[in-house]
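Input sequence (175 aa), recorded before submission:
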Amino acid sequence: MITSFVKTMCDFSFRGRSTKKEFLSFFAIWLLISIMFLTVIMALAITVLELKINTVSGDISIPHKMRTAGVLPFILMMTTICAYVIFNVWAFISASLLSIRRLHDMNYSGVCYWVWMSALLLFCVSETSILTAILLYFLIGGLFALGYAKSFPSHNKYGKVDVDELLLNLEKQNG
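Predicted structure, token format:
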């Protein structure tokens, strides 16, 4: 599963096909890595900024007189935040190319993806923040629309069908 994630992160091609398994495992590992990054960033923010979190109301406050924890934890926190942003930009580009390959697997053109992205960008500009639109893209659009759609059962103009996926579909039909 991790090797598939690394392979997908390094595959900057929109040609070919991607299976449901590759698509869903990419998003599962992306989510786990993002949670780990955010946990480390939050722990460093609590340490460096001396954040006070009220567990009942969920309010976060910074004391007026902060005692500095030193330069090294602050640099570590900023480096972690930069790494998280770079990782997410790279993952967004990889997820876009993976989505196009997944559309190819369902025998649709990659143009459908760009029409979908332009509609989301219009939604971003007119209604809500960019972060919300990216979350909508990854969670709703990515997982449900592309993650659970059936693959095209035979070879198409975008590539050959994966043999493992074909055998799995035949077992389900004969079941």
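Checked by second reader. Strands lie at 52-53, 60-61.
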